[in-house]
Fold each of these.
Amino acid sequence: MELTVESVVFLLLSAITLGGGLLVVSTRNLFHAGLYLMLSLLGVAGLFVLLAAPFLAGVQVVVYIGAIAILIILAVMLTPSVTQMPAIFNRNWALNLILAVLFFALLISVVSPALDDLGVDNWSANFTEDSPAAVPADSIVQLGQDLVDPDKYMLPFEVASVLLMAALIGAVLLVAPGKVGDEGEDR
Amino acid sequence: MVPLWMYLVVAAGLFSIGLFGVLTRRNAIAILMSIELMLNAVNINLVAFWRYNTPVDLSGQAFAAFVFVVAAAEAAVGLALIISIYRKRRSVIAEEVNMLKW
């Protein structure tokens, strides 16, 4: 891979994404973990910009960082742990680490040209494409039109709205106190 | 440009990190954070394949948008569940929510 500006930016954003992810799963302080999650999601938004999908990058920042991650941090603050400093990993952490590394190796073996360079006959395509066709200039307009086109994605779009409404009602019902004097305790 | 497999490797790495977090963290909210990492890895994959294979047809971006929607709905309901459990049991350690365990 030659040393262009794009590859340097890609390496930087990947480091932010993966580093943030590693910190999320290994910090003891949950509030910090939420902040590292925001950092990782920001790295993903940067990768979307690099992949010529600026609308999705904007949606990522507004929805994932600006709503989901903030909701997670809110929940962290609403559920403080009463015991001091419990263990953060459960008993099987070594086995799970081995499993995660093996899974990563399995994915790499299919996706990257590493196995092919070693001479193994990798039956799947190596995805070594590095000069793709240009994105049309009106891709965002086209995305909007596709989402409401009855021949394309109007049905999943409407179903997604129903899903969000169901999630909204369900979440409110789950945390609403039942009657007056119920154990709806807030601090 | 950066070859496609590098984006896929980044997504695979993020997915594996999220997988480790889901399997290993004891706090239920940390498990939810790791699930969000996995969903983001899926989104990176979708957008990378869209960019490199079919940049003219926007199905990849539409698919990624729907993954956003599902992730948001699932995070909201999951966090509502966790808060509800916390109210009853004063703890969000996933191992201690074991009434339905054998």
Note: Chain B is about 75% helix and 0% strand.
Amino acid sequence: MLSYFCRKLSFNVATLFVIVTLTFFLMKAIPGDPFTQEKALPKEIHEALRQHYGLEDPLALQYVRYLSSLIQWNLGPSFTHSGRTVNEIINSGFPISALLGLEALAIAICLGIPLGILAAAKHNRWQDFSILTATAIGSAAPNFILATFLQYLLAFKLGWFPIARWGSFMHTVLPALSLAIFPAAFIARLIRSNMIEVLKQGYIKTAKAKGVAPLIVFFHHGLRNAILPVFTYLGQLTASILMGSFVVEKIFSIPGLGYWFVSSITNRDYTVIMGITVFYSIIMLSALTLVEIAYGVIDPRIRTYNAAIA
Amino acid sequence: MKMDDVETPQSWQKAAYQRFKQNRLAIVGMTILGILVFMALIGPLISGYTYYDLQLEMKNQPPSLQFWFGTDELGRDLFTRVWYGARISLFVGITAAIIDVAIGILWGSIAAYAGGIIDEVMMRIADILYALPYLLVVTLLMVVMGSGLIPIIAAMTVIGWITMARIVRGQILQLKEYEFVLAAKALGLGKRRILFRHLLPNALGPIIVTLTLTIPSAIFVEAFLSFLGLGIQAPVASWGTMVSEGLAALHYYPWRLFFPAFFVCITILSFNLIGEGLRDALDIKS
Amino acid sequence: MKMRLLQVFAIINCFLMSGCQFSNEKPSSHHNSHTVRLSIPDDPQSFDPRFVRDLVSVSSIHMLYEGLMRYNAHGKATFALAESVDISPDYKTYTFHLRPSIWSDGEPVSAYDFEFAWKSTLDPKIVAPNANQLYVIKGAKAAKEGKISLDGIGIHALSPKDLTVELESPVPYFLDLAASHFYLPVNKKWVEAGSQTKDLVSNGPFKMQSFKHHNEFVAIKNPLYWNAHAVKLDKIMMQVVDETTGLQLFQTGQLDWHGSPTSTLPADALQTLKAQGQLEILPGAGTHWIRFNTALSPLQNVKLRRALTFAIDRKSLVGHVLQGNQVPALAIVPPSLRLQDKPYFEDHDIPKAWALFQDALEELKISKDEFPTIALCYSQNERNSRIAQTLQQQWKKAFGIEVKLENCEVKVFYDKLARQDYQMSLGSWFADIEDPMNFLQLFQYRSNSTNNTQWENAKYVELLNKSTQEIQRDKRFSTLRQAEQLLIVEMPVAPLFYASFNYVKKHQLKGVYFSPLGFLDFKEAYFDMENEL
């Protein structure tokens, strides 16, 4: 087990290194820099700013310089928001985005799994059809449409929830719902699809014949086999949902991390782009590693690591 | 079941096709899609307006006999624009989804079946692509390729295949330890045959679910890209862009949101139904 | 297990709902008549007046700092920290006499603070984007370029109370300049301690209370302000919200001001707000235009550029597309700067445009069918997109020519502009100071970072240089008018419309100075609760 862990860890670090390098050079390759703006700066001042921040140095030098500060987890200052460091930005924004993300995940799981199971259990009956339709509509409404719509209807018109900003549980409901609906639909469909297969399997009937309560069989054997793709999907989803959604946070004025994802790129705020990418990658790789381990736990027949050693 | 049917065994594909044709949901789905495609083709022709002619004095009109779906902020007929946009969205959505699915299935299944180092490396490549800031990648693509439908499809497929790859891989990892695979191996069947004829068909459920949910993603990623100046050029608009722009007008001119959003919903519903029908039809266990 | 899942869910729910507040903020629509809440799209960028460029920061700087002069609620530059001023007859030397006042750390404000702030902006070792705003001062430009030492600059604090400024050439409007944020003082100790936002030392009517990043910036009344009794507000809160959400918050009473200058109103809301009588409109000192790349064919032909310009129906554009009561622009310099006495050409002058177009075709030796497709480039946002699509149609109707639209991501657009990699592009300029020269000098030299049209004209350069030597306003304006006339004849840019500020605010809020340059001054602001509607 330890060797498996070490292998995964070293692969993760290597992957991280490639991500950092690619992002760095990609970022320098697109036109524009932090200081290009509508009211164009006089050329000498623009150049002076670039010099001051080391942007005129050879790329390789800038890269090495960045790597050495990265290793010390010093992500540098923001170019466009003077006086703020990237570490500060992540430290203040991440807890908020993560809280919202966890809430959304909880909703998606608590909504998606039971509905998916119900639909599978009542396959081809009205419950199945209505859940199918509901998930279809749910998947047709991405988070920014839902967010605007929910805000307009439930907050502005009906006043049931605050329109925007952050501060109490009630502030989290609408944004979390907006984030949760599409994943809930995806999860429900994944579970339903696999559960329908599982329910057709022989061993359910065998268990019944043996006298084992069908419900136990249903959950113990059925769900276990059916839930694997949900873990796959959740693994990938977790990192992005925890990092925050740019549009949802913008619509609800939530001071999370999602805003920086997009704005750092449109502003060409190099340090923020790198810092956020690194942070996001670490979370994503960790989540995916956990999912790999979960595969082995759910279905001991899966031997991803054994196959490597063999 | 007549005796004749038993004596003339149909091929697996033919049987599936028969079941598909009989599946009510699938029929409904196909019909709706058919109507949408039909309207996409003739809609702009029957309205009497073009999608680009501005009539500024007629801006923001609600639906009426003159403008069946109303007009937009520049006085253009919304009916024509919705059906013109249908062409873009349907084309881009379906093409991107097919490409994503094709790459995703191949990538995920090969990685899972090969296992070991190959699996590790292949999935790491997927991880790297997924972790790169998407907006950066797309901006660079657009700078290099310019604007137009091909660059957009490229931008959307660059990471769109990854979810499918991961899901397929998960399923194959699970399935490849099952008895029927061991049996096939024992029979001496080739790797490719096992993969494509035995493993993948059993993984169809999640594959179809992911496919049907990739299409709406494709439609809205395109809208997101347009929002940032990385999509199709005005005055052409897809459903995605019309929905994004209509959202801002929700308070005042709701038809600008309602019509494109409604048809997006219907399209996705139809794909869902077709997907369900496919799944039922291709289910080789029943 | 289903039951257990439900139980877990219910428990989590109860826990979360148990009035768990994670901040002390109470969202209240109950209005406090001494607090102003306004919306901003993003945080103020800096609290050091030497480095501030964006409008949100400029407004916050005016709240936090006080300079020699300040614009009052009626827009007149009045004495602030300067009690009086001696002006030399040639308008080249100004000596300010300061009144007693203190910084928020208790130390007195002196003339040395002004000298420090201004000279450090001109220090070649310090990267200050606004340095060129001080170039009217003698030796300023030379010092910035490193040609002379900082002591050679015409800024001298004769005593803690007296500051002398010598100018390069006569500037009758220097008192107006002194009221702008480019000429504010900065606390030297604060700068030397690292300019940390949380330790900010300022001297204005308000001081910073809290700054929650990308969330809210709060300023409260500064009790140490020399004129504190004139300040009627207790608190100003700037909250980060987007345009649609901001309007909803305003309509439910949770914001007191939404829209220009610190944020924008959603374009689709303008018509309804106007109809309801809620929309406030002010002319802004800005012009929007189309830049032509005069080095590329076929736009190097002057007649073609003029034809394209005359064919535009600006009235329709501002009336239907922009809807914010913008004014069609028939010149470069906005009317609020009072340069022109009559328009230089007519809007939507199709006969003239058509004649010019024919001439252009002849000069280019091509027929109408051979006319190439030219591209109009713009940075992607809703408004630009609508303007571009309208222009595309207008030119098609006028001449039957095809114009291709190219929307670009924001920074990609600026990069293309800087490299002159475009044919036509949308652009604009907003005045830094209320003087026509601020607009006309944009196009003085081909190499100006603000030009980008590849156009340069010797006579134009000459006229602008001549105007800097003229003391008398009328003579100076006459020269500038000649320059603007020349610009219109050559048409390297096609004026579209003058900027207009659109915003909504609580009727009871009065006394706010809204500068045409795009910042707000709340020193004299108050809520008139007696005349509540």
Note: Confidence is low (pLDDT under 50) at residues 306-310 of chain A.
Amino acid sequence: MSSNPHSVIHRVLQSLSSLRLGIVLLILLGLAASAGTLILQRPVTEPETLRQLYSPGALRWLDAVGLTDVFHTRWFVALLGLTGLNMLLASIERFPQAWRYFARPYRRPEPAYLRSLKFQKQIPIRSEQEGIQAAEWVLAKFGLKPQRVVQTRGISLFGERHRISRLAAYVVHASLGLVFAGGIADAVWGYRGSLALGLNEQRNVLDSRGGAPRELPFTLRCEGAGQENYPDGSPRRWWSKLAVVEGGRVVARKEIAVNEPLTYRGIRFYQSSYGSTGQPSAIQLIVARKNKSESPRTIVLKEKEPVQLDEGTTVRLAAFVPDFVLNGNQIASRSSEPNNPAIQLVVKSKGEEDAVIWLFPRFPNFSPPDRSPYRFQFQDLSMGYYTGLQVAYEPGQWAVWTGFVLAAFGLALALYWVHLRVWAVPTSDAGGRLVLWVGASASKNREEVEGHFAELVEGIEKNLRGVPERLDEARGISVVESVGM
Amino acid sequence: MMQPRVESHPAATGNNLVILVGLGVAFLLGSGLLAVVGHGELVTEQNLLYVSLIFYAAAAALYMGFGITGRESDVHFAWLATAAGLIANALAAAERWYAAGHPPLASMYETLLSFTVTLAVLTLVVESRYGVRLVGTVTMPLAVLSIVLMHLLPSAAHPLAPALQSTWLHVHVTLAMLAYAACAVSFALALMFLIKDGLRTETFLAWSSALLTGIYAGILTGADSSGGLAVAAWNRREGAAILLAPHTPLLVVIPGLGILVLLALVVLASPLVLCAWGRRRSSGIGYVWAERAFLIGIFFQLVTIVVFLQRIYGKEYPSRQAEGLFPTDPAASPFILAGLLSGLVASLLYLMLAWRRPVLERVLPAAETLDRLTYKTICIALPLLTLMIATGAYWANRTWGAYWSWDPKETWALITWLTYVGYLHMRLARGWRGRRAAYFAILGFAVVIFTFFGVTYLLPGMHAYA
């Protein structure tokens, strides 16, 4: 070996495509992946939890080597890439040999090759013709599709089955490569995000976790959403009616539910959650003047939509706390359900200071004094609901599914099908007797092939001993075959 | 040296065993029937499950009996008991399906129900079709353990959450159960290969001791400095653990139990140490003492189980997280109990081997056959695992819009797959046969167990419901 660049490249390629490296990579991949599940991962854990569980030193160290976010580190991606590369190179290196088996069946074996076969047997025969015919019949019965091969010394037989299984391993590797390619395509060109829409709200910007908001090429509007419950109150179904708006007009409409997404221009919208926004969509109030005996009237107050009470006086919703609780002297909400709502209104009158009013519908008699000329009484409240959508653009997913199906098919092919080849050559044995030399070779599962081979030989011997009707049948077949030649 | 004893009266022992097991089954069924007469309902899921438990336990006893005596009638009756258990088990699953309105694959309880059915079917198939008559010795105790565990798990059929209402889910979980049951059978076959291949009994002892040490060390992680053992508190009325916050159960401390577990751990680890010592000194005396220590270890295991159960029932214990006394229940600590019981089963299997090895070797098929069958079952498991991962990914994509998100269960399914892929490459490309392949098959099943149980209970993730 010299320092010839070609030989260096050759050696690098050879070690990159070696099975040893493949196994080492599989082990490393397994270890890294298990580390990613045993150590808490940053993207799905609150920073507080991490700080509680790991000491600052340990955490710094884990962060530095990426063990708190294994699946997004460069080294893990490199490991995946290297495994893919190894699989690919190994397949490329070994493929030509398998292809030779597939494309050029070894019909005329050398005598030396025959003698080296693991499964071989010499069966005495009376004439070449009789031996070939018997073997032909039995091979056909075993589904080995016998072919007559004209050799210099006479005629021999070759039969085989499941030749395609020689390529099965490459089918598996290629389809896993397809899965990889799909995954890479999605990682590079695909994106994911979420979208929360209130009723009749429309948006075209996605929130993506830890990334910049992404603009969609069209706008999505929610025209209805809801939840259906089981009798025990747990959610059974969430649904939303979505409309896609493009260039000012609706181009698609669909009611989606969990497991039934909307797909538009390759972008898929999934129902992922449904819930209260914690803010009211509308509040109904009864309003009356404090110092005038005017009949009270009902107004509907919405967020950001002040209502005119009289000339120069407006009221607006300033704040809403769905589940009011006082934490020390801080106002807080225990949940986003309107269990104990607190409503803050601001009344604006011309030339006067704004009046701030608090309403507590659960405690109608409790109202702090205010300077507003109007008295407000709570009547009804409807909460705002949002539908939570997951948005995904995965241009590579079809490669992934195709790859998976092909891989399972290829695996079954590789594991259950054996390429079995059988040769039958009339020749003379050491004692000068005329014999039929039968030999077989199998790509795997040698133990079982041994049984098959024994059956095959037995079948030929039986046939030669002459079960009459079978022999006739066999002759019938062979006549047809020889006519065809 | 604990040499395998020569059979003195195999016929009598064999008959007695069949009669004893038969009487036991009749007694349990009878007492179960009496209890049912009091309540009225005869064919309920719980009763059917109870019947299948009895028959599986009988089958396990008979398979072990066959291992000890080598009598054909035992294995015949064991086969019948397995089949009877399977019928009851399948009916329980059907009842569940009918009552819940969805295939029983949605919770840990339901998947275990389906798993035991698959396991029993595969046991019968491997036995009848391939003539490996001892598979049940390993798989039937596994089925019994699963049903005991099911009794402890919350069994109420919950309506399906929106994300779970998909045909793909059923396909996914069915494939998983089939694959995992195939892995369990390959594990049993690999163990039998090692017996037949002449792996020394000392080595089995060392491995059993290591397994038990692992189990008890795992339990001991719940011990606190005062010598108590922390277990989850249990609300008997609601039949659920008391939670402080989501996924954070309230822990109560049972005093003194930690010390007992530690003691058992020391005794159980000693055979491992003694075997290692004996091996280094290459003297047989280490093994003799190791075997004695193992017998003492079995006694300690029994004591631990009895004390654990006795302490748990009917008493309330203080907690470090909250004021007051809280009750607990075996159902609150399914893992501790499953660990203790599987440790005991493993010990009994070892005893069977140590005392009756020649009989076992006589009734087992040839080592090459077992080796090939191990490979064959893995050949069944691997395409199933591939399809399981594919259907899981497809379902996740339809539900969450992402086919792969490295959630722990997904990741561990991938690790399982990688393990068996490694096995296959070593076998097909490197020609690994025999022991190394058998060890690989055992490792694969260990990974399966972790993926199935460990990930659900020890690691957080979106597979929280299964």
Note: Chain A touches chain B through 50 residues (CB under 8 Å).
